[in-house]
Amino acid sequence: MYDLESLEPIRLIPFLDFLQLKDKYFTLLEMEFSPDGKEIAFLLSNSNGTSIWIFDLKTGKGSNGYQAPTNLSNVINEPIYRGKNLVWDPSGNGWLLYGAWYLDRQRKQVLWTLKPVPNVTMRDEIYLTPHFLLARTATALTDANGRLLLDRKSFLVSVDIPETAVTESLNAYGSQNDAMIGKGQQVSIEVNIGDVKFGNVDEVKSIIEDVIQQRLEAEGFKVAPDQPVVLKLEYHEQDGNKLKLMKPGSPTPENPSGRTETGKTLQATGAAFKITWIDTQTQQTLWSKEAAVNPRFLILRDATAEEARKQMFEALQSRLMAESIPYFIPKDKNLSILPLEIALPE
Asked: How far from 283 is each of 110, 179, 207, CA to CA, in Å?
C-alpha cells in the first residue's frame, strides 16, 4: 500500500500469511476498501468454495468474514453481472455479492436477494446506498419469445430496501412458535429422480441427497427422517445445447482466443430441477423454485457426450450447494420469508 501524496510505501500486506487456507491456490475475485477506510475485504475462490477475508489496516491482522462451501458464481453470477463482485454496504455491516445477494457481516447470512429481470442476458450494475438501490430499467434485449425489443428508453430508478420487513422477520427468526420453518428446525429430505443420461438413477439420487443434506446443515437445519416439514427436490435430465467443437491455436489480432471451429458439434446434457418446502401435515407448499442447468461452454479433455454430461452434473452439485433456500418461513402473513426477495424494475 502507498501513500497517495508521497507515493511512498506504507504497508506490505503478507497476503498468504493471514489467509488461513488449506489450499494455497486461489482466485482473487474482488478487493474493496471498507467505507471508513479501515479494512479491506477480499473475495476469494478456491477448491474449498468462496470466501470473504477481512484485513484490518491498523492491526495488520486478517479474519474470515464468510465461507461458502462452493463456488457462488455458479448460482448468483448467472446471468453475468457487469458490476463489482463484492461491494461494501455504506454502513459497513455487510456486502452485496455479484449484484444479487446481500450478506450480513455479523450473522453471516443472506438477508435479501435480487430477482433478475426476465430475459436478461447480462445484468447491469446495481448501486447500493444506505436505504435503497439504484437500478437501470429496460435491460432485456428480447421478449419471452426471443423477439428483439427496439426503441426502449432506459432510466435509472430507485428501489427501496425493505429494512423494516427484514428487521421484523429477523426478530421472529429462531422462534419455533412463529415459524413454519425456523432456526435449527428438524426437517426431512425427499429426492425424486426422472430421466438420467449416462448415469444410474440410484447413484444420482444418493449424490443429490448428500448435497442437499450438506446444504441444509450448513444453514443450521437438522436433517432427520419422518419430519412434518420436507424439502422436496425433483430432478431430470434431457438433451441440452449442441456445442460447437473448437480446437486451440495461436492467438491473432482477428482471433484473440486462438480457437477455431472444427465443423463438428457435441450434444451436451441439460438438467432441470424443482425445489419445494412442503408441510406434509397439510400438504401445503410453503415455497417453491424451478431452475435449469444447460451449459453453453465446456472445456473437455475428452470431447464426448458422456464427459459433457459429467461436467454438467458436477456443476449442478455446486449450484445446489449455493442455491438460495429460505431458512425462515413465518406463520404470520405480515412477516417476510428470509432471505427476502426484491424484484428489480423491468
From this structure: 28, 17, 26
Q: Beta partners for 115?
A: 343
Q: Which residue has the cell 424484484?
A: 343
CA-based nearest residue to 157, from 142, 140, 138, 141: 138
* Contact yes or no for 138/155 (Cβ under 8 A): yes
**What's the predicted TM-score (pTM) here?**
0.88
Q: Which residues pair with 46 in a beta bridge?
A: 49
Number of Cβ atoms within 10 Å of the Cβ of 43? 24
CA distance 181 to 176: 8
DSSP state of 37: S
CA distance linking residue 95 with residue 277, whole number of Å: 27
Per-residue burial over 185-205, b = 16 or more CB atoms within 10 Å of its CB, e = otherwise: bebbbebebeebbebeeeebb
pLDDT digits (tens, 9 = 90+) for 28-53: 999 999 999 999 999 999 888 899 99
Q: Determine the Cα–Cα distance for residues 328 and 314; give it in Å rounded to an integer.
A: 28
- Cα 212 from Cα 323, distance rounded (Å): 10
Q: What angle do CA 159, 161, 163 make, to 5 degrees?
A: 160
